[in-house]
Structure formats: structure tokens, C-alpha cells
Amino acid sequence: MHIKRKKIFLIMLGVVLVCVFAFFFVTRHYFIGLILDHVNQSGRDAVYLSDEGYANALGVDDLDDEDILEKYGEPDNQEYWVSESNPDVNSLACVYPNFNVLYVVSKTTNGENKYYLTLLTITDENLRFGKLNIGIGSSRLAVRLAYLLDKKISKDELAYSARDYPGVDEGFYGEDWCRILFCYDENGKVESMAYEPSAFW
Predict the structure, then answer these.
(1) What does the pLDDT read at residue 148?
(2) Domain region containing 190
């Protein structure tokens, strides 16, 4: 009788531990996000990869128009347009062999154009980021493992990113609340990924 009670107790303990683990696994991004939000009130340190890490993978010092132009030269193709709803906002889309860049263009006080990066989309499977080599062709599981400790972007928040990056399936917050975005194909492989600075959402 004593052995039977001990066996039932161990089974119940095992069930409780499985339930606790399952609950944490499902809600981990919420609780990790709360902790990281508290620690990083004014900014945010990315757990998986900093802005510098993304820049290094592209071979530039910073993710800005000057460094991209210096490293890669003029784009293969570019399109410039004025917003219909706001004529003061101009945009420039640049196509390079390995990535695409979207800028907001504004005039400085001396009349020169100033370019602000709003989206950098990776299009080449040879560009890889971080220790787990995340990039085009990576599985959804590999992406989630890489960004496990970075706060996941909610579906409602992703809607803002979808304006410039249609079809975005998933995203994670990076350094200073920038967004690292992913589109997956029907097999759950990364079809494209993008970097969106925090200033433009």
C-alpha cells in the first residue's frame, strides 16, 4: 500500500512538472519580455545579435546610407516616389544584388537630401547572421531557437511592419527596439528577412 501511494505521488509530481514546463514554454516570450523591459527601460540590448553584428555581416561599419553607398556603390535599380497622403515624405527604394534598402528622404536646412534607412531586406541566401547562421533557407525552428531570449513582436505590432514589408510572418525585437522580421515559405523556411530601425514604426 505504501509503495502504491509513493508511485501515485511520483506520477502526480511528474504531471505537475510537465504542466509547469509547458506553461513556461508557451508564455516564455511574455515573461522574458517583461524582465528585459524592466532591465532596459531606455533602450534594449539584443540577446542574439546587435546592430553591429548585422552591419558586420554586410561588411559595413553602420547600417546607414553613407556606409552602404561606400561599400556597395550605386544600386542596380532605384525608385523614388512622393507619398500621396503626405507630400513632405519622400521615399527611395534601392535594389542591390544581396539586399534591398528603403529610405525616407528629407531636405536639410541647406537644401540637401538626407536619407534615413527604414527597412533593409535580405535577398541573398549567402548572407548569414549570428552564431546559428540565420538567413534565407533557415528553418522556423532555427530562427526561434536563435531569438529565444529576444522579445517576440505581437501580431498586432507586426501590422505596422507589414506596411513596408508585406507578408511578414514573425518578428523579434533587436537592439534599441529595432525589429528583425521574417517571411517563411510553405515549408517553414525563411524566404526573406529584414531589419527595421526603431525610429520608423
Answers:
(1) 95
(2) 44-74+118-200
